[in-house]
Batch of 3 targets.
Target 1
Amino acid sequence: MQQREKHRLFFFTGLLASAILYSAYNLYVLDPYVYADMARGTRHLYKFGSIIIAWLIGFAAFRKTAPAWLLHLWNILYAASLAILLLLAACDALIANPSAPSTKP
């Protein structure tokens, strides 16, 4: 197989894997009935897992086909995005459930 065909194969395999991940996430996790019954910690775990899987798909696709600088950029952008999302999840865990004020007269 020629080098160009291998690059196309990796690209389209990564694209297909991303589409499958996105579809499964939207069909299962974001289903209104499942989402409403799911605990917040479980939702965070699914979101974190899907982000890590998406990074792995991109890393596997870019590793063979892209220049080194693009792979570094991919890793830096994903690490920064993941850090922001973890910070938001920590804020959500700390301040999202304040105790309800007392309604006693």
Target 2
Amino acid sequence: MSKLDILNRIKILFTDGPDVFDSHCEKASGDSAFDETGKLTYRYARVLHTDYHITGLYSEILTNILRGTKPYEHSNELSVLFKAGLIDANSTLTQPGYYKAISAMNLDSQIEHLKIPLDQFEPIKHKQGLDREIYAKAIYSDQYDFVTYDEGELFEFIKNCFIYSSRRYFVDYGFNPALLETIDHCPYAFLQSVCRGILMNERPILAKMMGGNKHLLEKENFQKNVEIVKKSISQAIRDTSVDLLLSESDRVPSMSRVRRHKSSGGSINAAFQILGEKAIRKFTANLIECPIPDKRGWSDLTILHKGQYIPIEVKLQDKLSYSQIERFFWLQDSLPEHAKNQRIAKVPTY
């Protein structure tokens, strides 16, 4: 089922209610859209959180709860929000509900609520989407050691280099060689199967990457393989030298704009030199253990300066997205020493 199909079904939940929604899903797919707790199953919940824009009364209810006003008069709507997993039985926001409520607010309210520092630039003539980032990068480049676009691309790329370096440890730690052979012939398939199929527990992705050998999965202890993969990657993060990492970067397929800009080596070198090896390895280890669920959440610019990592989200008047808010909180949980540096660069237009 495509993401568009899921989005169209979720729309039924908010327009016609849970019963009509669940009946539609059962007729279309043969199974309920709700789990045993009465909440949306994972595939629906994930698309709801990241791609479905809640508007109108539902948005108002979420933001009112966030601000401390509990709308008890909206019992039907509260039931929908509960089944969507955005509030609990006490009409208190769950974590996804908290993120979704913030994403429904305007930018100034989001910044104030999240306590994110704001850099206010002078107005510019805005012609196209990338102008604001080019403008911001030019300003920051005069002040800091190293500025690049999309730190997610940089750190995801470094992570992939470490993952690719870890493949030699898999069998040593007990991974089934036959299983490994089905995915090890292609760097892209290997990275996809490890990142999404194993670490993110998306078995259909893994089965697709394994092609005609998916029957091997039926005999595997999946959780054990997850632990083996994590242990192997941790070993690679400890052992892999910068020189080897850079050589691996030439073998990892073009999965990011860092590669397309032909600056992966320079960006990786800058990251290691400015942040230091210890910080890079810690960052990567956290990214493996607690991956950012949505890669779109990575901020627009990355500043590396005197050992500090500074993510910058460049905005005109548009809001922070759900995935961007997720990334802010991921950074606070995973790398609190760098979380204090994250900020919004607001670039007004004439």
Target 3
Amino acid sequence: MIKGIVLGATGTFQIGFVPAENFIPLKSGPNVSVDDASATLTQPDANDDFTIQVPANDTAAGVNVTVTGVNDQGATVMHTFNVPYLPAPPPPPQSVTDFSLNQL
């Protein structure tokens, strides 16, 4: 399930295969690309995990993540997923340390 990435944070993802079990390994890949030039992407590791880091000031609504590979038959397998960007949560509540005054 794709939940999204909070602006200013890093999302971690794991590539799954269809079928999920008893499949012939890929000839090459999987490789990952993103369409947001501001996002920092790592390529999949041995567990097929990768990360996307999003700057806090990114103005895009999300990122399209494309996973590609070549199967045992030589066919290119490709799928694009949309990952939304989520607003940063508000800061935690703080104790009152002083007062302000407004004239009405």
